[in-house]
């Protein structure tokens, strides 16, 4: 049996992270959370850069082999985590921006006033229905 939302747009099953996020929080909250998460990764990147610089600063050629090994391990840990955080920051930010750029209803231009529709034929896009004018369009992921 198909459920129907407040405005008359049907509500059904979802596949993607964007669809799940819209269903759970609504688009605006989802977008806000994505931005906060992406910037948290940027902060992590800054901390990793500081850790990397501190490790270079603390490195001593005359230190024991064990200490030098620990310094190299710290450099690798900071560099690896920093690269991961950078990738995640860029991905989350561009994903959220790409979705936000498609959040205007093409028919009445209402921003982010939509809900999901049950028919989700494409795995790479989310079908949505405008709450104001009932126009349907898809948001590419
Ligand atoms: Zn509309």
Q: Name the average pLDDT.
A: 88
Oligomer: single chain
- Extract low-pLDDT stretches: 10-15
Strand order of the largest sheet: 3-4-5
| Helix/strand class | alpha+beta
Number of domains: 1
Task: Give the cofactors and ligands.
Answer: zinc ion
Helix content: 40-55%
Number of DSSP E strands = 5
| Percent strand | 5-15%
* Radius of gyration, in angstroms, nearest whole number: 22 Å
What is the N-to-C order of secondary-structure elements (H for helix, E for strand)? Answer: EEHHHEEE
What is the straight-line distance between the termini?
28 Å
Number of helices: 3
Q: How are the SSEs ordered, and which strands pair?
A:
Blueprint: E1 3-4, E2 10-11, H1 17-25, H2 27-58, H3 65-100, E3 114-116, E4 125-130, E5 136-140
Bound molecules: zinc ion.
Zinc ion (ZN) binds at residues 105, 107-108, 110, 130, 132-133, 135.
Summarize the structure.
With 141 residues, this protein is an alpha+beta fold. The chain has three helices and five strands. A hairpin with an 8-residue loop joins strand 3 and strand 4 (125-130).
What would you note in describing this structure?
The structure is a single chain. The protein has 141 residues and is α+β, with helices and mostly antiparallel strands. It has one domain. It contains three helices and five strands. The strands form two sheets. A three-stranded antiparallel β-sheet has the order 3-4-5, covered by helices on one side. It is rod-shaped and about 75 Å long. The two termini are 28 Å apart. About 4% of the residues have low confidence. The structure holds zinc ion. The site of zinc ion (ZN) has 8 residues, from loops.
